[in-house]
Amino acid sequence: MNTTANGSSSWSCSSLINPEALKVGATVAYSLILVVSLVGNSLIVLTVYKTPTLRKPINMLIANMAMSDLLYPIFMFPLFLAELAFGSWLIGGTLGQALCKIRPFLAEISMVVSIQSLVLITVDRYAAVEVPLRSPLISRKVCRCLIVGTWILAVPFGWPYLFTYNLLEYQEGKRCMNQWEVIFGEKSSFGIYLLSASILFFYIPFVVLMILYSIILIKLKKQAHPGEQSATAEEQRARRNRKVLKMTVAIVVAFFICWIPFSIQLVTSFFVPENHLDCKFWVSHEVAFLMACTNCAINPIICLTFTSSYRQALRRLVNCCDAVQG
To answer: Residue 134: how many CB atoms within 10 A of its CB?
Structure first.
């Protein structure tokens, strides 16, 4: 699913909203997302890497999502903000052409890696609730292989953008444009590709996750007993599982809330004739795209809010850095 937006049409909708006000608002919003996502996801990856007790499969998968989310503040947001500020693509030549192709390629990989990580996280939680006394379904060794697999599987779905995106010269400046119909034929083939990728890596995982979490919640409800809580190892493990489950449910819900509007808009824009798409559609398209980008800044906040072990590990990490500097 192409996670980049053209957006040029929305900036000219002066009858609906002031283009300059829209640009200023977008610049502030994307700058804030850039800082929060860059700092937050870097801290999540560093915390898991530096804390042996956090190197469990579920935390490794969350760190994998954080690494995929880092592709946005590193490769996507700076270029997008530059386009907003100057009205055109600033970098020309071979480097500019390469960046034009790499941006949508990495954006697609980030999306696919994230959704695969969410599915693996949910499978891990399902196994922890369904068979809590058995060995983990996803061991550390298996988890490492699965993480590598998420990136390998994502590459083919971003690969077409390395060919279809090109840097073009216009009178008003350079533009990084998707020329799918020039490379692969009719534009309808792009719509088919988008729909297929959306179904495979968005809607099917969404249904699978909803089914698994429904089963998990039903299972936990059956396990809940009234009265005083015992201090047995099994009960303590169950409480830990519930805390982790709350965090993973929050991550999944946030992901789909952020991405569903843009997913629907993106597919719609390639099946509805462009002359039927008015200013309201393009402005809502920009809002939906902003919501999708917000997701990469939300995940670190959720992890630090729901899990005390992340906060404690981060605090120890900061204290260690202060001691080294002192």
So the answer is: 9
Yes or no: say if 78 and 35 are a contact pair by the CB < 8 Å rule: no
In this structure, are residues 191 and 267 in contact, taking their beta carbons and an 8 Å threshold? yes
Within the chain, residue ranges assigned H as helices are 8-11, 19-50, 57-69, 71, 77-86, 93-130, 140-158, 161-164, 180-184, 188-198, 204-223, 233-269, 279-306, 308-325
With a CB cutoff of 8 Å and minimum separation 6, the contacts of 258 are 291, 292, 294, 295, 298
- 3-state SS of 187-238 is CHHHHHHHHHHHHHHHHHHHHHHHHHHHHHHHHHHHHCCCCCCCCCHHHHHH
Q: Residues 91-107: what's their mean pLDDT?
A: 90
Q: Which of 86-95, 96-105, 111-120 has the weakest average pLDDT?
A: 86-95
pTM: 0.85
Model confidence pLDDT, tens digit, residues 162-218: 999 999 888 878 888 888 888 887 766 787 888 888 888 889 999 999 999 888 888
Calculate the CA dihedral of residues 310, 119, 237, 224 and round it to 10 degrees: 120
Which structure tokens are listed for 207? 């249904």
- Between CA 123 and CA 108 the distance in angstroms is 23
Q: Are 280 and 268 in contact (CB under 8 A)?
A: no
d(CA 55, CA 320): 19
Q: Please tell me whether residue 312 adopts helix, strand or coil conformation.
A: helix
**Joined tokens for residue 286:** 């920009």
Contacts of 161 (CB under 8 A, 6+ apart): 2, 101, 104, 105, 108, 178
Angle at 125 between CA 122 and CA 126, to 5 degrees: 85
Range with the poorest average pLDDT among 78-92, 126-140, 143-157, 169-183: 126-140
